[in-house]
Specification:
4 strands, 30% strand, 4-stranded antiparallel sheet
């Protein structure tokens, strides 16, 4: 199942401004999808929203 067409992608606020290292995210159905903005048709990383929040908290701690 290709979930990409209906997702609303946004760039990470931590992505660089040079256009060479950009991460895009999309939220849907309690999950967060992450992709490389230079490879829109490339692989996705999909995680449950609560797992993503725990990951971010661990990085901040």
């Amino acid at each position: 199942m290709d979930v990409r067409p209906e997702l609303r992608w946004f760039k990470s606020s931590y992505s660089g401004g040079s256009g060479t290292e950009c991460v895009e995210c999309a939220r849907a159905d309690g999950r967060l999808h992450v992709r490389d903005s230079k490879r829109e048709d490339g692989p996705l990383v999909t995680v449950q929203a609560h797992a993503w929040r725990a990951f971010i908290r661990a990085l901040q701690g």
